[in-house]
Request: fold
Amino acid sequence: MDLINRVVIITGGRRIGRIVAQHLASRGADLVLSYRGSKAEADDTVADVQQRGRRAIAVMADVSKGADCAALVAAADKEFGRLDVLVNMASVYGSKPFDALTEADFDRDLSVNLKSAFLCAKAAIPVMRRTGGGRIVNFADWLARSGRPAYHGFTSYYVAKAGIIALTEALALELAGDQILVNAIAPGPILAPPDMDPAEVEAVAKATPVGRWGGEIEIAKAVTALIETDFITGETVRVDGGRHIV
Reply:
């Protein structure tokens, strides 16, 4: 799929999402960016896209709710008259010891990290079918893709991201006949959290075979590749600098 004049929804467009939006705009796409609480950041990303000569809007949406996902897709359709790509980046990340994990914690992780991808896809698919096909890119995690949780305190997060892989495969099978290709990205050490200790940042880099963090642009490149392919579907691609091979 050529990105020129295609319409892309990105959910969770902060930090890495902003770079993805910029990269897709530079290749000719128009953007619809969802936000829940960070309107100023979404507006900044809209301005980035417009500076690249493309169109963009920001839409407030809690993508863990079906009605908000439907409204997000409707806004894209109303503004641009089509929808070609859905990039499900909305995510929450945090650790909590298993004994302290509550039902509410578990539900939150699954709602934001897994159910939102299903709900947004459910809303987007009819519009994609109307325009002859599309692409869906979900976000998993390199550990879930590797089949090993590795770190204590991430039970619900790991379960949700493993579910993303299963959802990606199931949707790929369901939608292949509609020419809607569905894939996922499983990031590794891309961007250090702002509160991470410098010594830990360095330790992660040393534990990565390529010897460094990837940077946001590596995710943007992977998203672009999975949009532009016309034959890959049902895959979850690790972007982890080789972490899974050590």
The radius of gyration is 17 Å. The chain has a mean pLDDT of 96. The chain has one domain: 7-245.
